[in-house]
Fold:
Amino acid sequence: MENKIKVHIADDHKILIDGIEAVLSVEDDMEIVGHSLNGAEVIQWFKSKTNKADVLIMDINMPEKDGIAVLKAFKKGRKKFPCPIIILSSYDYIKLIREVLKLGASGYLAKKCAGDNIVEAIRRVAAGDQYFSPTINEKIVQSFSGLKNASEKPLEGMLISALTDREKQVLKFICQEYNSKEIAEQLCLSPNTVETHRKNLLKKLQVKSSIGLALFAAQHKII
Amino acid sequence: MENKIKVHIADDHKILIDGIEAVLSVEDDMEIVGHSLNGAEVIQWFKSKTNKADVLIMDINMPEKDGIAVLKAFKKGRKKFPCPIIILSSYDYIKLIREVLKLGASGYLAKKCAGDNIVEAIRRVAAGDQYFSPTINEKIVQSFSGLKNASEKPLEGMLISALTDREKQVLKFICQEYNSKEIAEQLCLSPNTVETHRKNLLKKLQVKSSIGLALFAAQHKII
DNA sequence: AAAAACATCACTGAATTCAGTGATACGTTT
DNA sequence: AAACGTATCACTGAATTCAGTGATGTTTTT
Structure:
């Protein structure tokens, strides 16, 4: 076949990339033309004029820059997206899904979905449609129809992306057990400022103490 | 080939199972004979006398029962494991690695390792050897040779199992953001006693603050 | 252009944690 | 029997966090 769909995969788990590559290899209308292990690599790859892809499948949790940051970066560049983007995540929080759609994603796959879904998703998205894996689609419909049950508020609905860059930065230091004074030194700030950020984090994430902050960070792998 | 290595895969991400299955399908000396999406399924599957596998590849983070719990269950019930077990995890903490090895695992793969490693791991482990993916092996050697830093000496080797029941109990409450006074009420103890447990936890786990305790607990899934 | 969000800094006072020490009692293990 | 680990409780003082408020300037969004 001549016009194969060119796919780029981004995930920090190489084993998953290899796995998806193996899954796609039996399909004769698509091929993997590149992969990235973190968000920075994704942006770098698409910057290169010689590299092109028709579909980008991207995890949200990645080091360096996460999937949200990549979406924002692409959106900010003012230009059009390099290609349709499918988010592949283990999270299925409705707010997160809404967020990435707002940021321009064309599809959303839960990691617990089957390999078939990914093939289908690539074809549909490459054709200009949107695609959501079954469980995700269910969530969206539920939420739309007001049937939202438990999943509307994961940790009270606060997402990583609801935190500012500075707050995330401070949070990382908190998780390294630095106290406010030490963090202030690291970031060249006043300890008072760090304390303010810390308090804002407590409010946003609705936790009682820095322990809650650390656990949130751990659960969302932003540390 | 007659004697294919029979593999069972356990991971809560179906897409990863499908991926690994695709990777293994091109190897003619192994085959996947089953898979599980959580720890309970693993135990269930191996309970059935009709099901047999030569190697179990298992994630640590799974709902219902996690990988650690499965290892413990196998160790507890029978004397012999149903088969060699390879842990597949995104965590590469040295303490966690040591813990699963203590619990009888035969191999450890980081999820960021390549697909080739998994094939190699299966062959080696099926032959009765141990196998660790490159980055993991590095960590083990580093730790063994003490090159890392002093973190492997003083009261090191501190694992979940090194904590007393009471300490674990207190730790759980700490992770729920209770303060010492509240924990004392819950456990009908003096706040002073709780403080002592807290301080002993800090020493044993060699962390600076309760944040470190919470992160340890999160990483070791004891919360 | 106005409004909202972000980042910065300051002050106070109460609550909590952390470090260091020491003590009693009970059960294993050696 | 002695040593060890565990569980319990107490006291002090310094360090740190947390809550509440307020302020200024910049950037982004609407």
